[in-house]
Amino acid sequence: MRLRHRDGPLTRELVREPGGFGLGQVPSRLKPDAVASLVCGFCSTGCSLDVHLRDDGPVNITPSVRYPVNQGQACPKGWEALAPLAASDRAVTPLWRDRRGRLQPISWPVASVHFVERFRALLDRHGPDSVAFLSTGQIPTEEMALLGALAKFGMGMVHGDGNTRQCMATTAAAYKESFGFDAPPYTYADFEESDVIVLVGSNLCIAHPIMWERIRANRHDPEVVVVDPRKTETAMAATRHLAIHPKSDLTLMYGLAHLLVRNGWVDREFVDTYTSGFEELAAHVEAFPPERVSAVSGISTADLEDLAALIHGGERVSFWWTMGVNQSHEGTRTAQAIINLALLTGNIGRPGTGANSITGQCNAMGSRLFSNTTNLFGGRDFSSGADRNDVAAILGIDAGRIPTRPSWSYDRIIDAAADGTLRGLWVVATNSAHSWIDQSRLREAMSRLDFLVVQDMYATTETAELADLVLPAAGWGEKDGTFINSERRIGRIRPVARPPGAAIPDFDIFRLLADAWGCGDLFRAWTTPEEVFRLLARLSQGRPCDIGGITGYDMIDRAGGIQWPLPAGTDAVPAEERRLFSDGRFFHRDGRARLVVGDPTPVAEPVSAEFPLVLLTGRASSSQWHTQTRTAKSAVLRAMSPADPYVEMAPADASARSLVTGDTTLVRSRRGSMRARVVVTPTIREGQVFVPMHYGATNRLTHASFDPHSRQPAYKSAAVQVGPATRRER
Ligand code: SF4
Q1: What are the pLDDT digits (tens) for 211-245?
Q2: Structure confidence by residue, pLDDT tens digits, 67-106
Q3: How far apart are CA 542 and CA 90, in angstroms?
Q4: Which of 37, 42, 628 to mutate to test the pocket of ligand 1 (most atoms within 8 A of CB)?
Q5: CB contact at 8 A, 498 and 30
Q6: Is the shortest distance between the CB of 77 and ligand 1 below 6 Å?
Q7: Which pTM value belongs to this model?
Q8: Which of 159, 186, 597, 603 could be stapled to 284 by a disulfide with Cβ–Cβ 3.0 to 4.6 Å?
């Protein structure tokens, strides 16, 4: 029996207004010659951008001068943030794949009936493990919260993860175990206060350029140490570069801890008062003397000892890391080994210090706290009855609606699609068919699905092209909400343009689907993004991420963004820059941080005679963003980076293959191949190659191995060969 569309208030409005306009969030007429400030929707730095409006639309952007994050600066993506809105290939109507395999326009009511009918049938026939959703770190917190609540409390799904699994899962797992909560402790002022800055696996200059500008504003003449296999732009600008062998960072960190312990450079007062696990750590790192560490990492014993002495001698030492650490087969332990160094030396809770992970996407932190995917709201646990009751009471729902088990992680969701357990998948604002590791396996898994829904700004993403149903969504600049940046700062976005055609904010799509599913009543209080923000503030109360003191969007606007926590009862708008743990109390019950260690493990795919080169992947330019879904829409950004894939090679490796810069070659792994232009450069070591992540073919090469604690994919370690294409491959 076909379901009839259930008519809720929002759908009635959509039916009445076929263009989809007239919704509460989108102003019917924009104020002439006004300026609206929005936090940028690309990276986690969270710069504020002033959008200049004239007549009925945005005309230009300038970086906000008085915002504490970016202080009048923006990278090229920020300057070009309006271009993706005006792209000619925006999704402007729901699309349904017909019997001949072609996507055909349909109306929202029909789309919602298809959605409900297909997902309901799968749930009824195959149970809750047969369906899942994949969320994102690119939509506002309020939208991801509504998605997580709707799917899990309203529709009966158990499984839903986010693309933050690809960038921050490692760090979230590390902080949770070490600090007792997923809590980056720093504020950006720490970049300016340190006298020693250690950057591990972070090419800040191009990946987070405004954070690099904060280092440049440091008046303490800091030592800047970069630990990275490549001589990246950041390594070139640093005072020291340790070009470690790929995936030797865990051993290196233990070697540094060994030297701190051996030389009596541990801050015993801090360690004894505020941490636990020192004896185990000291025993563990005894096995990492400089000679062993040097042999594994390629760093001389003298350089190791110099770095340990530098960390010991610094008054305000800060440690920062990002994807070089996170996207590793042992990323959680590596992040914790960095955290250990900060704890051992008492470098936490004071200006210029900290064990500081840098987030990737604009709202990765919102996803970690409030997406209701693998964690229950506010960092709670689905398997805890007390946590479920807590959430149920705050939301006024039956606790029985809350799943009693945590979701599968992203990789397990893909595995379930591959083995036929999972039959329906709802992908929201992410491009799995480009970004997920080992593409041929991902695509094979997706091809086995009975029903794939993609909700996105564009119907042209690699994933949307595989979809049975495409739901057109408004983008950044077309809707309301908040993002949480790397330093825990909650910032506003707001509509400055109308979405094209029948595209509507994700928030409204979720409400529409709630009505169509018949569970709209559950979300009676979830009427606007700001009302959802207030609900989240209530859900956060008493948690480490307590934002109960933020009364609404006006307060965020007035304060220039607000860092969590801000419990209710806080008198004044807080200082612009706040850090955690200044009182030495961590989030474990006993208030102590844990010094956590584990044994290094070999990479899943070592090089071989057939595949003798280590493939490193990563960001290549400040003008490209992830899968280029949005940045490729800007002619300015396109002109700033190569359109075609390229592979960076060491001179010796290129010469051994008779390759020179500009040659077209084939990069092969056991899983697939890609054509790429050769760039011969001394910035990469012999035996390694680098391919930017931004090209669709890159993940044909990567190897699907995962950090066991976080299930984060290890994107930066696969064995490849580079050589001319055979006649068949040309
Ligand atoms: Fe700032 Fe990142 Fe946006 Fe660039 S992409 S403007 S660094 S928030």
Answers
A1: 999 999 999 999 999 999 999 999 999 999 999 99
A2: 999 999 999 999 999 999 999 999 999 999 999 999 999 9
A3: 42
A4: 42
A5: no
A6: yes
A7: 0.93
A8: 597
